[in-house]
Prior knowledge:
The chain is α/β, with parallel strands linked by helices. Helix content is 22%, strand content 27%. Flavin-adenine dinucleotide (FAD) is lined by residues 148, 166-169, 187-189, 191, 193, 203-206, 245, 248, 388, 390.
Amino acid sequence: MRVSPATTNHSTSTLFTVVSSGCQVGSMPAVVQTQNVALNRLSELFKRLGSTGAKILSVTPVGEDLHPVAIAASAPAPEAKPVTQVPTPKKNAHANVPVNTYKPKNPFIGTVANNYSLVKEGAIGRVQHITFDLSAADPELNYLEGQSIGIIPEGEDAKGKPHKMRLYSIASTRHGDDMGDNTVSLCVRQLEYKNEAGEQIYGVCSTYLCDLEPGTKVKITGPVGKEMLLPEDEDANIIMLATGTGIAPMRTYIRRMFENRERETNGWTFRGKAWLFMGAPKTANLLYDEDFNSYEEKYPDNFRYTKAISREQQNTKGGRMYIQDRVLEHADEIFSMIENPKTFIYLCGLRGMEPGIDEAMTAAAAAKGMDWSELRPQLKKAHRWNVETY
Ligand SMILES: Cc1cc2nc3c(=O)[nH]c(=O)nc-3n(C[C@H](O)[C@H](O)[C@H](O)COP(=O)(O)OP(=O)(O)OC[C@H]3O[C@@H](n4cnc5c(N)ncnc54)[C@H](O)[C@@H]3O)c2cc1C
């Protein structure tokens, strides 16, 4: 099926041309039909075509000279609800995004403002919320929600060379947690694992960060990254899939959308739907949980918070409940949202989460007659499928 990449906001009366082919009977070729139908009658037409076994070949707005994109060519019509109007990304949309104000050769020396634990008693591992004072930065270290900064830990590696910079997703909005426009916060998990000899190993930079005392000077680089930026559109819908510290960029989006002081002063009034899927091993490991619960209570029409707590909840097969199980559970709603060109999806966390999500999206798409392997690159191209895993 071909789907128009139009960016225009179509009213319900906008006409679309739907080209479909009827069933092949014996050796007779399939009949190709062209029909013009208003936007608000599209789904009815799809249903009717589906019930006759017809295949939808293309959907394009009448009178627009479009270059349709191939999608789900083998999808049967009944469930083949099109992802209409995959928006074409605006050229230079990210031209004014600050990048690399401070490089590893010339880092900014920030000061730790505070550092506190984000996990509760009984949690697995250690995760800290760390805030740095940037007020001495000249030039200013400005950043946007969805970007990362680099940290260069003190000390030397095994070869006697200074430690290299590590990247961390920013967890505060551009205004900082205190809205003072001169701090940046991170959400850092201390890396720990046992090596082949069975020794307990702690990560260099994550341990350095988790142990930082207020007042300590820290080498900061960046900001970097344009992959995880939020759309400007206040009516956009944002689906967020996060595990562990992958919550950092999501926290920035959600604060920008729903935190009182942000809404009052940031000049951006979110009116769309935001849906956070959060994966954690235990309830005690849920990060910023109270904040998200309170936003959900206050903005029930705009914010939805779905948790997958693997060691405490079971999926329908009786196994551990992972975030991909939640995606499958809500596949229908998720894909109905994806059909709306204003829906953007963000995924962040450990790289290991990607195959599970991909599998769930493949199954969910198939249930709607779509081919995820074809749809995903289109959504990515339109900046609607955004992934940052590490
Ligand atoms: C864009 C981006 C954003 C990021 N955001 C965050 C964030 O918000 N929060 C966060 O906590 N981290 C984040 N990270 C990860 C972060 O950059 C570091 O990689 C992480 O903190 C580990 O660094 P370290 O110096 O502590 O570990 P290191 O001392 O550098 O050790 C890491 C090395 O240990 C080895 N290793 C790791 N696990 C195992 C294992 N189980 N078995 C054997 N060997 C292993 C691997 O060789 C690995 O390269 C992000 C990474 C990227 C790229």
